[in-house]
Amino acid sequence: MPAFLRYEQWVRPEIIPGLPFRWYGLMYLVAFGISYFFFVYQVRKRKLDISQDDIINFFFWCIIGLLIGARLFATLLFDSSGYYWRNPHRIFWPFDEQFRFVGLAGMNYYGGLIGAVLAGILYCRRKKLDAVEWADMLAGGIPLGYTFGRFGNFINGELYGRITKLPWGMVFPHARTFPASEAWVREYATDIGMNIAADAATVNLPRHPTQLYEALFDGLLIWAIIWFVVRKRRPYPGFTIGFYVVAYGFVRFLIDYLRVPLTGDFLITLSSKSNPPYLLVTPWNFIPSQLYSLLMIVGGVLFLVLVRRFHKTPAERDGEERPTRLSAKKLRKRIDRSK
Predict the structure, then answer these.
(1) Cβ–Cβ under 8 Å, residues 220 and 144
(2) How far from the centroid of its chain's Cα atoms is residue 290's Cα?
(3) What is the pTM of this model?
(4) Does position 92 have pLDDT exceeding 90, yes or no?
(5) Helices 131-139 and 23-45 sit at what angle, rounded to 10 degrees?
């Protein structure tokens, strides 16, 4: 019995063949809708005096910032071909050379995060809103929305991982193939029960479905921890969003050991072992997104430290005011006694 799975041929990026509506775009809409729903739920649950217009405008500008940042990172930093550096006008151009609508294929999480954060901070500053509190509420829905974004990547058959012999390894139709004449390729195929045709020139070996790993662990698991534990027991404002940033960075760093680098090679190689990017040989070679994950972890920890120090709760602010009032009373008593 074969110890691998095949990507079903009926799974197509288009919702309706021939029409420019794709599952990936729909998953983005679902992700935005989920984040909005959980944000509004928290506003109502906490009985906050926030208008519907402010919430909608906040989400609108965060989504704009997310799309711009995600697209810029994907095309300028994670595209190894250099096509968009040579043709910058095509970064936000949704048509191909034949003027067929193809959408904006290629978005990057880290760029989207940076774009959304900048847009959210600017909006909150303009409206004199507490950006830290709003970010905490936003973190209550983001991971679950992210889950659906990774489902969109899976449907597209992209962002798959390295070669694996695990029984849930999947053969993705657009993955790089390998020469059938090479001994290691035939050894892999034999170990997983894959038959190689006698006239086959290349072989498509199973990969880690890293899109589903991320959907499960960086999405569903982190959301459950935040929603059912962190959100209810946060020790101070800003802890929820800080926890999300650190947790996402940590889990993503580990999963990326199983992912193929989008740029085609490792960013940092600390091992002398020969390590093709499609194989996991050593933990001391790192792909570019792992560096971004480490920066997220460090940034999240610093944010937690700083926000705990400078962003005090109303109760803490009240507590600081009381000694001042008491001191004033004692001062008046002393003045009266001196008379």
Answers:
(1) yes
(2) 12
(3) 0.86
(4) no
(5) 120
pLDDT in tens, 234-276: 999 999 999 999 999 999 999 999 999 887 789 999 999 999 9
Cα separation, 229 vs 205, in Å, equals: 40
Contact 170, 207 (CB under 8 A): yes
Average pLDDT, rounded, for the chain: 88
Q: CA distances (Å), 209 to each of 1, 146, 154, 170, 258, in order?
A: 20, 16, 8, 6, 9
- Coil/strand/helix, residue 305: helix
Structure-derived torsion over alpha carbons of residues 132, 137, 143, 145, reported in degrees to the nearest 10: -120
In the chain, DSSP finds a helix count (H) and a strand count (E) of 13, 6
Q: pLDDT tens-digit profile of 279-289?
A: 999 999 999 99
Tokens of 99: 């003027």
Which of 51, 46, 60 is closest to 123 using CA atoms?
A: 60
